[in-house]
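Anyone have tokens for Methylglyoxal synthase? Sequence:
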Amino acid sequence: MELAIIAHDGKKAEMVNFLMKNIEKLRENNVEIIATGTTGSFVEQAGLKVTKMLSGPKGGDAQIAARVAEGKTHMVFFFRDPMGKHVHEPDINMLLRMCDVWNVPLATNPATASLLIDHLK
Ligand SMILES: O=C(CO)COP(=O)(O)O
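Reply: yep, here.
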């Protein structure tokens, strides 16, 4: 199953910590991780395998939204920074909307992501 991960700058360290903490469960369930560009680089540096899309502001969120619509991405962890403003807000909203249109599980914080991971097998 394909999991897309995205984290705004203030949340990237939290995303890496979260994935490291849950790596066994992800491996057991053959979860393949894709990510927006910079988030993916952080995760790679932590030693995890990840397929990188474009950076968020350059279209990465939009690419992941398309994968959700095409049925290729099955779950999304998007750790958003609720205090930040983003030039690509329309792309962010499109991704959130596609998750709702296609009923794809979406976690926007680690607490919800934990619940989703606990629900895998
Ligand atoms: O902007 C983002 C999500 O909206 C994240 O993109 P990056 O992972 O490339 O920083």
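The first strand starts at residue 2 and ends at 7.
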